[in-house]
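A quick aside before the break. I want you to see a complete sequence-to-structure record at least once, exactly as it would be stored in a machine-readable document. Don't worry about memorizing anything.
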Amino acid sequence: MTARTPRSEVAPLGPAPATGGPAQAAAVRVIVVDDHALVREGTVQLLGQAADIEVVGQAGSGEEGLDVLDRTRPDVALVDVNLPGMSGLELARAAAASAPDVRVLIVSAYDDYAYVTEALDIGVGGYLLKQASGRELVDAIRAVARGVFVLDRDVSLRLARRTRADPSTAGSLTPRESDVLALLARGRSNRSIAGDLGLGTRTVEGHVSSVLAKLGVASRTEAVAYALNHHLVDARTDDDTGRPG
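That is the input. The structure line, written in tokens, reads:
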């Protein structure tokens, strides 16, 4: 089979680490929220094959998913967009407010611009399409748990088509603006960026506005898409703090 570039903006991380040994890291704790039982159970079985991932809960609706999230406090929540009752995006927004340490990875059949931009504006840990392979899903979970922002390549290209900037304008970003853009690409909020860079929130807001103006885009989401597709930031490496975003 011919090798191909992974669909998601994350490098293959290799096989799960061998069990045992003093340096073994704690397993990534995951919940799966999907209203299709067959998909949900198949995902649980798939993740059960990775020694460094532990499924600690599952749910078939947004409301049930939020309850499971609050009870288990996983590292990563796999959430479908189209859920009965509370949508996956509503769940992600609620999780951002009540459990900011939980990284939400949207796994959806939809690449609609409105869905993706809302997800990124909420500050999810990543957005992956359901056509991704099992290997890509496992790699994405590992990456998101480390604080790496993951964006499906097809989704990234779709967002890029909505940007209007000339690539040459990126060279006018100051070093500090480049730092801010890199953290935006990891799904960080203004408050989080301020803490990481030792700046005031209003100062960060000013840098974000300047970045948008220089890149010629209208939103943080478009700035992230532009940065990823023009290689202004590397979404495949951990941030300097080594902490999840």
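Two observations worth writing down. The chain has ten helices and six strands. Strands lie at 28-33, 53-59, 76-79, 103-108, 126-129, 150-151. We'll return to this after the break.
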